[in-house]
Amino acid sequence: MASKLPRQEMPRQDALVRSKNFKEVALGYPPETAMLEASRCLQCKNPKCVKGCPVGVDIPQFVEKIAKGDFLEAAKIIKNKNLLPAICGRVCPQESQCEAQCILGIKGEPVAIGRLERFAADYEMAHGECKVEPKASTGKKVAVIGSGPAGLTCAAELARNGHAVTIFEALHVAGGVLMYGIPEFRLPKAIVQKEINGLRDMGVEIKVNQVVGKITSVQELLNIGYDAVFIGTGAGLPYFLNIPGENLCGVYSANEFLTRSNLMKAYDFPNFITPIKVGEQVAVLGGGNVAMDAARTALRLGAKNVHIIYRRSRTELPARLEEVENAEEEGVEFHLLTFPKEILGDENGNVKGMICLRYELGEPDQSGRRMPVPIKGSEFEIPAQTVVVAIGQRPNPLVTMTTKGLELNPRGTIIVDEKTMATSIPGVYAGGDVVTGAATVILAMGAGKKAAASINEYLATK
Amino acid sequence: MYTVVKKRVLAKAIVLLEIEAPDVAKKAQAGQFVIVRQFDNSERIPLTIMDYDRQKGTVTIVLQAVGYSSTLLTKLEEGDSLLDFVGPLGQPTEIKNYGTVLCVGGGVGVAPIHPIARALKEAGNYVISILAAKNKDLIILEKEMRAVSDEIVITTDDGSYGLKGFATHGVQAVLDRGLNIDAIWAIGPMIMMKSVADFTRPLGIKTFVSMNPIMVDGTGMCGACRVQVGEETKFACVHGPEFDGHLVDFDLAMKRSAYYRKEEAMVMEKYKCQCQKEGI
User: Fold this and answer.
1) Are B41 and A265 within 8 A, CB to CB?
2) For residue A349, what is the nearest residue in chain B, using CA coordinates?
3) In angstroms, what is the C-alpha Rg of chain A?
4) pLDDT in tens, A205-230
5) pTM score, whole prediction
6) Fewer CB near the terminus (10 Å): N or C of chain A?
7) Cβ within 8 Å, pair A172-B23
């Protein structure tokens, strides 16, 4: 039985080597390994993995094509449902989605669906591409605000259906969090741009440097002839701690730290002019994927010791297990049940350390997780010359504030009909982090796709 | 593309650039800023808007060669263009009829004061503008400021033009006339804004300052531009750039502005030879 084969490991750069460079950590399957791994799939008649995928990729079909060595056909099958597979194959939390549903996972290890998706996508990029032909033009125009995962997916699906799509991006390049947030060593920017170019080939127009809410507004877009608008502006407003010392020099939000390094390429300073500073000791506050990205970036920028400081215990770490393990292997130190109550500075206003408290877990809170409770008198000092605050983001209000009639939740997220992603304004849809609060790339893509289907229906009635 | 349609050298190392950016020009208001990027490896630099022409579709900025990036920007010539020009960003100045107002511009700070003075005058205020600089050669935009003000006071550190002294001496001179000042806008170097704010605090005159901290995205995404205003942390890019000068922690702001000084020097050094070679 093929299923007796063990799950195939994907080669990775050695931890000690990779913690000093920005090249991609995971190297991808060679073809023979991909075929071997694909042969493990049981080809279930009622595939549960597909139900676990937010965009409904026909997983058994594409895996079967890989097993047979028909890699381009595999890529084509994926692209029927997902036009950004090289990105998803790298950053989706497959272990809690498709792979969590895999029958093989009950007794052994699930098929490595994510690694196979990545393999097929990379193969296609390297060996000629399967172009997606859009349907005949409908003459309808849609504006998509934000070019992150939600916006890109929505734009791609709409373009495929023959609508004229214009994306409005605030930064100088398209990609949103895929460009400014997720580091090069986890998601090479050239790959992001290649997948975005695929959208351009389908006729999607991308306008950069367009801060909607300032240079134009949702209402104006509707007035100048767009038949529908999709808002996918993400969660681009960082939370800070509200503790003394958080504005000292050397205290970065994770957004700033990662944007400097990823988008502005500060890791290549001074060839790129935007600077970034890391001290010998770096403290990253928080335990999510963004915190892991910041910690691993700090190592690569030359920090000697990088500390992840998190209030709860290891089981509550919101980051993907794979990312936690990657960080540990590279030498990131975890300080669990610990959090600062004050950031300390020197006479020049630079960070020199933090006063931390130890925590214990108390009763479960609203989220069901046990509440961290500080232990009285447990103060101790952690030295750090750089502090990165990675405790979450909320939606950026520039668009929502300037859109009259758009209903919001108290936390600033947009209220939508969950089935259609329609907002309180007719013709205006939203999806991704601006609706859910900070979540994952694939959930945003799922929302973008769902919204595109509703917009498609809406336009048919117009 | 964002093409330079007009360039004027206002003083040594200070230039005015009129840039073609019709969509930005359409929406620009007094007190707002833009972010520019010149080359693919450039920083994103925030620059306050000096003027805009909605018909012509242009936005005018004034900048001084200080660091590497600003020096390169001052070398732009008519017909050259910028890679990126994003805006208008930040909150516009709250324009209404306050009564008698002072518009204080220090050094290149006169540029962002210009549209504010004009808008305040259009709103019916009696506008007294104070132009302050080190010496006569560094007083910029005098003619433009006269056109949008009811009165002009000039101060120079060395007394080579107008009153001898700092911006605060200009404010003092106006107050000495027994005028009742309803509000003050002070824009210029951090130390000048701090002095004006310190000067007016005990007098209880509402004083607005325009902060120009280090920024990256300029849309509220990164928080690099955090300013301590009273008990609150504000982002200059979305909450500002104007704040109540009496509440801003200028000492912290100055330290934050100086945080990358060493890196700036490194870049200057690395490119000095290159600039000499290329004659720029």
Assistant:
1) yes
2) B255
3) 23
4) 999 999 999 999 999 999 999 999 99
5) 0.94
6) N
7) no
